[in-house]
Amino acid sequence: MSHLSEQAFLVLTALADEPRHGYGVLQEVDRLSDGRVRLAAGTLYGVLDRLTRQGLVVVDREEVRNSRLRRYYRLSDDGARTLAAEAARMESSARTALTRLGKPAPSTGGGNA
Amino acid sequence: MKIEESIEDVCRRLVRLLPADYREQHGEDLVTTLVDTADERGVLPLRERLGVLALAVRLRVVTPLSARTMAALVTLLLLFQAQQAPVALVSTVWGSVVQSRMDYDVSLWWTVGAAVSSVLWVIAFVAWLYGKVRSALWSAALAVLPLGIGMVDSVLNRIEGRSIWWVLGAFVSVFGSPFVVWSLLALLALSLGVTGGLRAPGRVRWWLVALPICAVVFQIPDLTRLIWLGPLPTWEIWLFAILVWIGGFILALRSPVVVLASGWAAALTAVIYALDPPTYTEEGRMVALAALATAVVLAACAYLGQRRTPSAREPV
């Protein structure tokens, strides 16, 4: 399986705990990356479209408020597995890098990122 | 409230840049998200506008080169190579190259090489259609080999008394000819297709039917050259192009993907002829121009076909 891009990884992570609508995902990605990655809505929908086609994200539900449609997205089982695998891979790479630099790797308390 | 209405109008106008089928699926949701990103003055930030613009470009320009279009393009390139087999075989039997467009001496290697190569292209084409991608790749690679040897041999036959610059120039000229570029392009596309796990789209039997039809149609320009002993007349080049446009128009509703792939093939033709030395002749310029026009017309046909029948995904 090919690696996820950083944007895709952050979008999947944003959806890991609960379903979110588009703007919710944008805010969560901003928060998760400490403001380093600020997705534009157009970019987010490009990423969501790709992840949906790959079966990693599915539409959870739709709500209409103030005559505006909001679509909520959530991780599929495949998406959760892919995210877990990618997180483990990144953790392993990070550990290797820190070890080679002679710096202790921070404890993650069980292995999951 | 008034400001919010106006920002919604701005977002809707922006979202109109996206293709209709995408808008139908995600448009309303995207408008809601865009409205949420507006700043406290109710102005949509520039980066959000650019984000939608980039998405529009990706969906309209990049996505048309999707996996299905690439698969159709690979099949078309192989079809183009395979359709040359009958003439190449006949030429070998007669001991002369009817189809050769080059003005240098024809060597035995070249005639036999061209015949062997064309048969291997037919095998590659059929293997690709039936999903035997490894066999297709091997056949295509072997098809390029005798062609290359024949080309080198053609130059070496005339090397005596020539300067090193002449030899280099001859090699560049031979390997830059459309005939060779097409072969290498077909091999490259097939390699990418095999690596990407692509399969020939549509029904095998329709592609098989297309083979003899193309074998006849594509010989018309060469027969014209033989009959008139000169370059193709401009009117014939454009007549050929118009017939392709009509074919694209008819096929667009049924298989927009194949029509789109044909558009890409036409665009490649335009580039190859534009870069080739014959461009300096009237014929080369006309072929490049007609191919470019054909690429645009076919892309438009494919776009309209896809819009009118969004569910028409099965080509041919």
TrEMBL record, chain B:
Residues spanning the signal sequence: none
Keyword annotations from UniProtKB, A to Z: Membrane, Transmembrane, Transmembrane helix
Keyword Ubl conjugation: no
Entry keyword Nucleotide-binding: no
Domain of life from the UniProt record: Bacteria
Transmembrane segments: 70-95, 107-129, 136-152, 164-192, 204-220, 232-252, 257-275, 287-305
Protein's name according to its UniProt entry: Uncharacterized protein
Species, as recorded: Longimycelium tulufanense
